[in-house]
Specification:
The complex is a heterodimer of chains A (576) and B (101). With 576 residues, chain A is an all-alpha fold. Chain A has a single domain (3-448), classed as Sodium/glucose cotransporter (Up-down Bundle). Helix content of chain A is 70%, strand content 1%. Chain A has helices spanning 3-24, 30-35, 42-53, 56-69, 74-98, 103-110, 114-147, 151-201, 206-209, 224-235, 251-266, 269-272, 281-317, 327-333, 366-369, 371-374, 379-417, 423-446, 452-465, 467-476, 482-505, 524-540, 547-557, 566-571, and strands at 338-340, 360-362. In chain A, strands 1-2 form a two-stranded antiparallel ribbon. With 101 residues, chain B is mainly alpha-helical. Chain B has one domain (2-94). Helices cover 83% and strands 4% of the residues of chain B. Chain B has helices spanning 2-38, 40-44, 53-94, and strands spanning 47-48, 51-52. Chain B has a two-stranded antiparallel sheet with strand order 1-2. In chain B, a hairpin with a 2-residue loop joins strand 1 (47-48) and strand 2 (51-52). The N and C termini of chain B lie close together (10 Å). The chains are: A mainly alpha (576), B mainly alpha (101). Chains A and B meet through helix 5, helix 10, helix 11 and helix 13 of A and helix 1, helix 2, strand 2 and helix 3 of B.
């Protein structure tokens, strides 16, 4: 069978599994729809969180990005994993202990203020839409590359699928589909990685092959990382493992971006909400462990894949006659992801750090997508990678859509506009808003705004500068007040948004104008510090929270006891 | 005495949790921002196999350490939870017979 038939087969099979799970796990209660009935075992939730978190960007683009960034790729590797430590230690168990359904709900209860809740709702919706647009686009791109359908058709197919299992199954459907999607995506990621590691270094474990010697070719017997540094020097590029030199990011910027991504990760509503679905606070801690374990499998493999692919690509292309280019090169040339411009007209491909001499343009996405072909793996592996990329994009999209749906139906309608709704009505509204969110996400997938790349920095910056400080202080301080939290959130968001808008969207300055050398991607870490400072200062001069809120904080800090909903104590609507 | 006793058990629980948090977060900061970024240059002069050590911490080691940190936290907190449950139950049992709590 050829690649196309294999792709139809494997993608078709995985989609059938997702639909089957959706039908099996459909829900009839709001608790089932929002938090999967709080019955998800920690290991299962860890897998679901892994799929929820690892998006099209993690699966398709990250290894490629690292491959071009070298040491600087560290910002993504540590930034997108270190946040789970903060999540496990500072947030997940307490949010689970609090109970209820959404993150804005916690903000509203802890800060005894609908205004705080509304600010949180808008942050959650904004962050989620920013993210989901990219996922839908990713689905379309994968379809178009592997199945030769138009990108828009791919987006519609993805929308239909997510629509079915998100609207029908809510969080329960999403959770179990995400488990299946995690399995598909990790297998699809590891098989080519192991094969390429074995081929280049003779070691089947990519994490070890990464530090081994190259087994054949011009650099045989040389350590892989040493070889890539040599190759980079010859081509006039900064060394791959080089740090803080010209052409690389400064130390201050690496620190700031890593911190912003870590804290942003811990403040992303679609990740936080996953920890509402486990039975107890204790389960939330174990679940965070499993989540990081499953994420770490991919994240420790990615930098190895990045290095293998970089060496492999330069060795197979640089200095080779265009007429003799490998078959995968020709295949991918038609997609425009890899291009050869014969500047000197000698028919030989040359890669160079000097843009005047460089003749090869390589898109970062090709590193993962073309990897199986570069490593000459069978057609079914190529098809599996397509299914893996779709799984990564769809699972993240579904998690985000649920946050949007819950924010609209639960935080806006149930709590503010129409508090008299019955549970059945709320469930219907939740399904309708999930459906509407799919349509809006699909619209952005078909008509991607030009500024998607810029707004992703925004999403993390915003999560770091708004949610994280307010949530952490809400648990660890009883003295932080409503006035403090609202002014802190507004100051953090205002500062971060202004900085990003100034440099990224309005283009009113370049890198030399950055404050303390911090790029817009890293400014969320300063926004977070501003939020902390403002919240603590304002709280000092405003009256302390009412006693029932202080009691709620005390309760949240204690281990779960069955049959006691903490938030109910505050609202007086729990069983006595 | 039971109310105060339960109060004491709660305060002890929270103190143990905070002490554990501070220690683990110090390691979290030290391995990622410390070894992986601030000290990356001197560490890169040391090679372990084919890895410059600072580079290894930045792209591999820190992630392994993150996983271990959460593992340690989850295990220790299981114990701290159990201690609290025992202390709180004892304090409640020691309380006045009319069960004022």
């Amino acid at each position: 069978m050829d690649i196309r038939s294999w792709t139809y087969l494997i993608v078709g099979l995985t989609f059938a599994v997702y639909i089957g799970i959706a039908v099996w796990s459909r829900v009839r209660t709001t608790a089932g729809f929002y938090v999967a009935g709080r019955g998800v075992p920690p290991l299962i939730n860890g897998m679901a969180t892994g799929a929820d978190w690892m998006s099209a960007a993690s699966f398709i683009s990250m290894a490629g990005l690292i491959s071009f960034l070298g040491y600087d790729g560290t910002i993504y590797l540590m930034g997108w994993t270190g946040g789970y430590v903060l999540l496990a230690l500072l947030l997940a168990p307490y949010l689970r202990k609090y109970g209820r359904f959404t993150v804005p709900e916690f903000v509203g209860d802890r800060y005894y203020s609908q205004a705080a809740r509304v600010v949180a709702v808008f942050c959650a919706i904004f962050i989620s839409f920013t993210y989901v647009a990219g996922q839908m686009r990713g689905v379309g791109i994968v379809f178009s590359r592997f199945l030769d359908v138009h990108i828009d058709t791919g987006v519609y197919l993805g929308m239909t699928l997510v629509f079915v299992y998100a609207v029908l199954g809510g969080m329960r459907g999403i959770t179990y589909t995400q488990v299946a999607q995690y399995v598909v995506l990790i297998v699809a990621y590891l098989i080519p990685a192991v094969a390429i590691s074995l081929k280049m270094t003779g070691n089947p474990i990519p994490q070890l092959g990464f530090g081994s010697t190259i087994s054949e070719g011009a650099h045989a017997g040389v350590y892989l990382l040493q070889a890539i540094d040599e190759i980079h020097r010859e081509l006039g590029l900064p060394e791959y493992t080089g740090t803080f030199v010209a052409g690389k990011k400064s130390m201050v910027d690496i620190l700031a971006i890593t911190l912003a991504l870590m804290v942003g990760t811990a403040g992303l509503p679609h990740v936080l909400i996953r920890f509402y679905t486990v039975p107890t606070a204790r389960a939330a801690r174990w679940s965070a462990l499993w989540a990081l374990f499953f994420i770490g499998l991919l994240y420790t493999t990615a930098p190895a894949v990045a290095t293998f692919a970089r060496v492999n690509m330069i060795q197979t292309l640089h200095g080779v006659e265009y007429a003799d280019a490998p078959a995968w090169f020709k295949n991918w040339e038609t997609t425009g992801l890899i291009e050869f411009h014969d500047r000197d007209g000698d028919g030989v491909m040359r890669y160079s750090g000097d843009p005047e001499q460089n003749e090869l343009r390589v898109d970062r996405d090709i590193i993962v997508l073309a990897n199986p072909e570069i490593a000459r793996l069978p057609a079914w592996v190529v098809a599996l990678v397509a299914a893996g990329a779709l799984a990564a994009a769809l699972s993240t999209a579904a998690g985000l859509l649920l946050v949007i749906s819950a924010s609209v139906s639960h935080d806006l309608f149930k709590s503010i506009f129409t508090p008299d709704m019955s549970e059945g009505q709320e469930l219907t509204l939740a399904r309708v808003s999930a459906g509407a969110a799919v349509l809006v996400a699909g619209y952005f997938g078909v008509n991607p705004p030009d500024y998607v790349a810029a707004v992703v920095a925004f999403a993390f910056g915003l999560a770091a500068a708004s949610f994280f400080p307010v949530l952490v202080l809400g648990v660890f301080s009883k003295r932080v007040t409503k006035e403090g939290a609202i002014s802190g959130m507004l100051a953090g968001i205002g500062f971060t948004a202004a900085y990003i808008l100034w440099f990224k969207m309005l283009g009113l300055g370049d890198a030399s104008d950055w404050w303390f050398g911090i790029s817009p991607e890293g400014i969320g870490s300063i926004g977070m510090l501003i939020n902390f400072a403002v919240t603590l200062t304002v709280s000092r001069f405003t009256p302390p929270p009412p006693p029932e809120v202080q009691r709620m904080v005390e309760e949240i800090r204690l281990p779960s006891e069955p049959h006691r909903e903490v938030a109910g104590d505050v609202r007086g609507d729990a069983p006595a | 005495m039971s109310d105060q006793g339960v109060e004491r058990a709660r305060a002890a629980y929270w103190r143990k949790n905070l002490r554990l948090l501070v220690g683990l977060l110090a390691v979290w900061f030290g391995c990622s921002f410390g070894l992986g970024i601030l000290l990356v240059e001197p560490l890169d002069r040391i090679h372990v196999g084919g890895f410059p050590l600072g580079f290894w911490f930045a792209q591999q080691g820190s992630i392994y350490i993150f996983i271990v940190l959460i593992l340690v936290y989850a295990r220790r907190m299981d114990r701290v939870d159990a201690e609290y449950a025992r202390d709180a139950a004892r304090e409640r049992a020691d309380g006045p017979p009319d069960g004022t709590r």
